[in-house]
Write a structure and sequence with these properties.
It is a single chain. The protein is of the alpha+beta class. It has three domains: about 80 residues, 434 Repressor (Amino-terminal Domain) (Orthogonal Bundle), CATH 1.10.260.40; about 220 residues, UDP-n-acetylglucosamine1-carboxyvinyl-transferase, Chain; about 210 residues, UDP-n-acetylglucosamine1-carboxyvinyl-transferase, Chain (Alpha-beta prism), CATH 3.65.10.10. It is about 30% helix and about 25% strand. The strands form seven sheets. Strands 4, 16, 17, 18 and 19 form a five-stranded mixed beta sheet that branches. The protein is globular, with a radius of gyration of 23 Å.
Length: about 525
């Protein structure tokens, strides 16, 4: 259920909820229209967020979908009640990449033409960026089924009208720096927000963008940016951090630089490759995709009508595979981007996980390699070596937290070393509330000893996305009833995760108090 308050909830968010509930009940737009005595086109407008909704119509939609999706009044936090210890079964499909979608939304500002993104993840993080784009004059229109997004920037952006509330609630706003420096001589952006993961400096972004003439001064909650017009034809940037968003920012700056840019120590991760594939459609030539050295042949002006489908999300894939592992279930996770999961799967094989892979097949973008992964009940053992993340092609930094709950299901002690983030390991100690033996050695290292006799508990959601999902997955394994409070952060990175887990047999109820 979502509470409707004009100052806090947009029609687009309401439309997303209605579309998801309709699809989960197996209804077409026409069938829902019949229940409401309206037209299919009206349902399409509602789900697209382009039609005003009366209180009476909201109540009828609740009734037609047999759901408590929407109510009127003061917003209240959402909670999940989980009846754990249930084996899961069936097939679940990985959705497109959230991080890829966010980068592509920012990159659409480079293009004076029309960008159509296919099968976009409908999550809070995406909606916030769309809200920011619309506020500065970009026309962003969802398709009738809510899956595709058409983006057309105006000739001149109105940055003075930027939606500061939406901008401050996402770290992704920092990725506006790269595309904007190719369009504006001076501009302001609100400070970036996002998850509570300790200090995450923006200085690597500044180092990467200074060679393109960007100068940024932080004052009174704003990034005040100026761009110097003179720059050499050939630019070489050595990134001091092989970060995904840093690389993306530099790539977007290079795309509109009418010369050749060499990026060294670049991230070759999945969202960076998605961005490269999109830029190639715009006419930007890029050498070295998938490596740590990129040569970008930029264009002073980009005006192209293009369509692109982001690749599937390896972090969501890892989440779903973990759900099967910790519940001792046989499930198939379809459309797994295997290139970005190979170290994770090799580590799981070392721990004794029984799984099979289908033959490879291409994603909708024609570039990403996909497989279906079937996991089976297994006797897991702690790995001999520690589990730690590395830049791609190492174990994904965002996938590391899932190994904490997997290690809790394995026999023996596993050392988890999260060297990237200051506080994330601390959030994973909440697994002790569910019966796990998790010892915090320091802010970056955990000892996890299993196997765990999971038991239900009430836990407040950690203020970080991946640990929050890890606690939810632990609750799926725990016999009895658990309550996960204040789960809104999960919607930042997952589209209807609990509803999709329910389709596999999980018993999860959303409630508010």
């Amino acid at each position: 259920m979502t509470v409707i308050d004009d100052t806090q909830t947009s029609l687009a968010e309401i439309g997303t909820l209605i579309r998801g509930a309709r699809q989960n009940r197996g209804l077409t737009q026409t069938q829902l229209a019949e229940r409401l005595s309206t037209s299919q086109s009206a349902i399409a407008r509602i789900e697209q967020g382009s039609q005003n909704l009366s209180v009476e119509l909201l109540a009828r939609i609740n009734g037609a979908l047999d759901a408590d999706l929407l109510s009127i009044g003061t917003p209240r936090a959402a909670h999940l009640r989980v009846t754990g210890g249930q084996q899961l079964s069936g097939t679940i499909t990985v959705k497109s990449s959230k991080n890829g979608a966010v980068a592509l939304l920012c990159a659409s500002l480079l293009n004076r033409g029309r960008t159509t993104l296919r099968q976009v993840a409908r999550i809070v993080e995406v909606d916030r960026i769309v809200d920011v784009l619309r506020s500065i004059g970009v026309r962003a229109t969802w398709s009738a089924d809510g899956k595709d997004l058409e983006i057309v920037p105006p000739a001149e952006l109105d940055l003075s009208a930027i939606d500061e509330e939406a901008a401050r609630r996402t770290r992704s706003i920092i990725m506006f720096l790269g595309p904007l420096l190719g369009r504006e001589s001076a501009f302001n952006l609100p400070y970036a927000g996002g998850c509570d993961l300790g200090t995450r400096t923006v200085e690597p972004h500044m180092i990467a963008l200074r060679p393109f003439g960007l100068d940024v001064v932080a004052t009174a909650g704003q990034y005040e940016a100026t761009v110097q017009p003179d720059r050499p034809n050939e630019i070489t940037v050595v990134l001091t951090e092989r970060g995904d968003t840093v690389t993306e920012n530099a790539l977007m700056a290079a795309a509109r630089h009418p010369g050749v840019t060499t990026l060294r120590n670049a991230s070759p991760n999945y969202m960076v490759q998605d961005l490269c594939f999109y830029l190639e459609l715009l006419g930007v030539r890029i050498e070295g995709i998938g490596t740590t050295t990129l040569r970008v042949h930029g264009l002073a002006d980009i005006d192209a009508d293009v369509e692109y489908a982001p690749g599937e999300d390896p972090v969501e894939a890892m989440s779903l595979i973990t759900a099967g592992i910790v519940t001792d279930s046989e499930i198939t996770v379809a459309r797994v981007p295997v290139e970005f999961m190979e170290i994770e799967l090799a580590t799981l094989a070392e721990m004794g996980l029984r799984y099979t892979l289908s033959p490879e097949y291409p994603a909708a973008n024609g570039r990403t390699r996909l497989v279906d992964v079937t996991v089976r009940p297994s006797e897991l053992q702690a790995p001999i070596d520690k589990i730690h993340p590395m830049p791609f092609p190492g174990l994904n930094i965002d996938n590391l937290p899932f190994f904490a709950v997997i290690a809790a299901a394995a026999s023996g002690t596993t050392l988890i070393h999260d060297w990237v983030y200051d506080n994330r390991a601390i959030h994973l100690t909440d697994l002790t509330r569910l019966g796990a033996d998790v010892r915090l050695l320091d802010p970056h290292r955990l000892d996890v000893t299993g196997p765990t006799r999971w038991s239900g508990a009430e836990v407040s959601c950690p203020p970080a996305l991946r640990p929050a999902v890890v606690i939810l997955l632990g609750m799926l394994a725990a016999k009895g009833t658990s309550v996960l409070r204040n789960v809104d952060i999960i919607a930042r990175g997952y589209e209807q995760l609990q509803e999709r887990l329910i389709e596999l047999g999980a018993q999860i109820e959303t409630f508010r108090d």
